[in-house]
Specification:
Length: about 475
């Protein structure tokens, strides 16, 4: 079915035509070739100049169509890649299948997968602006790659690609909020060597423990909400289970992306005959405890125990103990609040992913802060715990914070336009999630920046959805700002 038939009654039509078109292109991080080709073809069809740098970022330039006074050149910016997450049981291949759009009232979502409105709505808005008949000053649209795996497209951006010294980032997720600052961040990776033994089979059986039904969420924007983390719950459960004599641990898996709070966790356990009831009692106990603690924040939380084939190998007891202790000890959540901005998370860490690779336990965590020294402190804390457990730690280079500039000329224009257009005051502040503005601002001297966007919910999860009326209003706001510059 043509995706646009779902959206063709929505206004403004060019915005939704482009959004429906890009939903046809799988665009997981590092696989943006097809959507970039779509943008190239668009630029050629509209006789617009474009350039691509070595990293794969693409800029498309629209010359001024305004008459009268000289107009300020401005860069619009968003990223091409999306978080590719799907529900268990959803048959979807992100390497080739389109996102299947679903419209329910005013909310647009996808069938069993992430929607890709983060940041597909920015791509659609920029393309709609580029083909708009409005009289506008010179515009550059910068489409970056690989944002979701660490802002690497922006980190490798050739700064000569853009000439503007004003930039509107369209990667925010709350209408009426104008962002002028964001956290920096760094990923930390732990490797714990494991000793393996052949599985004793006589008098043993194997089960898979599965934690699921959590909402998940953005590890920056939603870290303060107290959402359940499947790895935290899974580690707590394993610590309780392994008080039972004779259990052996065969595998651990959970989470995926550094910027997503994990929703699912599995562990394969070999159990001696006669201990199944104790195991089930422990599972029931932890499930009841976690449901009580999380309350209505995570109404779908569940833990199941399913028989599986006995694995060939299991971890030696000491290795299993070290793996469980490591996961129990690693922090997750808010580490500190800002003293300068009420309600703003200053520092956090996300226990993001765990799996067995090459016989080792591999752990991914992500630290964020608006202060570089506190990123270092949080990363060192995580790394120290990994080493104390007997493993090693390494830390990615990371990306810088975006320092707010409340006196910026661009901000004053956006606020004035918003006030005149809506009759309301926008909220102006900083954001705990990482935005590419910090990286771009560090590369391009004198860049004056703001970020805004429409209402999105459930970002980085299959529950992602976008308010279509909000997206339409934000697009109109963008056009009004461009006309005012």
């Amino acid at each position: 079915m043509n995706q646009y038939t779902i959206l063709q009654h929505l206004a403004p039509a060019p915005l939704w035509r482009h959004f429906a078109a890009i939903a046809d292109f799988p665009r997981c991080s590092k696989h943006e070739e097809r959507i970039r080709t779509y943008i190239e073809d668009f630029a050629k069809a509209h006789d617009l100049a474009y350039r691509i740098d070595a990293a794969g970022n693409i800029v498309v330039k629209r010359p001024s169509t305004a008459t009268g006074k000289a107009r300020t050149s401005i860069c619009l910016q968003g990223h091409l890649d999306m978080i590719c997450e799907k529900n268990l049981g959803t048959a979807h291949d992100f390497s080739r299948d389109p996102i299947r759009l679903k419209l329910d009232g005013d909310w647009l979502s996808a069938e069993g997968t992430t929607l890709g409105a983060d940041n597909g709505i920015a791509v659609a808005m920029m393309l709609a602006v580029l083909e708009s008949s409005e009289e506008l000053g010179p515009i550059e649209c910068l489409f970056t790659v690989d944002e979701e795996t660490g802002l690497t497209g922006a980190l490798d951006l050739d700064p000569d690609l853009i000439e503007s010294r004003m930039l509107i980032n369209l990667d925010s997720e709350e209408e009426g909020f104008i962002c002028i600052g964001c956290a920096g961040g760094r990923n930390s990776y732990g490797t714990l060597p494991l000793v393996w033994e052949h599985t004793p089979t006589e008098g043993m059986r194997a089960v898979q423990i599965k934690v699921f039904g959590l909402q998940g969420g953005h590890s920056g924007a939603e870290i303060h909400k107290g959402l359940g983390n499947s790895l935290v719950i899974g580690a707590r459960l394993l610590e309780r289970l392994f008080r039972i004599d004779g259990l052996r641990l065969a595998s651990i898996w959970g989470g995926d992306k550094h910027n997503a709070i994990p929703r699912e966790f599995t562990a394969d356990i070999v159990v001696p005959d006669g201990r199944e009831e104790k195991l089930q009692d422990a599972v029931t106990e932890i499930l009841a405890t976690c449901r009580t603690e999380l309350g209505d924040i995570e109404p779908g939380l569940d833990i199941t125990v399913t028989p599986v084939e006995i694995p060939v190998r299991v971890m030696a007891a000491a290795s299993a103990g070290a793996a469980i202790a490591l996961l129990v000890a690693l922090p997750h959540g808010v580490l500190g609040m800002s003293r300068d901005v009420d309600g703003l998370v200053e520092t956090s860490t996300n226990l993001a992913a765990v799996r067995i690779e090459g016989g080792n336990l591999e752990v991914l965590t992500s630290q964020r802060s608006s202060r570089a020294s506190l990123i270092d402190r949080a990363a060192n804390q995580v790394g120290t715990i990994m080493r104390l457990a007997g493993g090693t730690a390494r830390h990615a280079e990371g990306y810088p914070a975006w320092t707010p500039n409340p006196a910026g000329a661009l901000l004053q224009t956006v606020v004035s336009v918003y006030q005149n257009w809506t009759g309301k005051e926008p909220e102006v502040g900083a954001f705990h999630a990482g935005l590419e503005c910090g990286v771009i601002g560090a590369k391009v001297d004198g860049m004056d920046m703001v970020s805004f966007g429409p209402d999105l919910q459930g970002v980085h999860t299959p529950q992602e959805r976008m308010d279509v009326s909000s997206a339409g209003r934000v697009y109109e706001l963008l056009l009004n700002v461009l006309k005012a510059l």
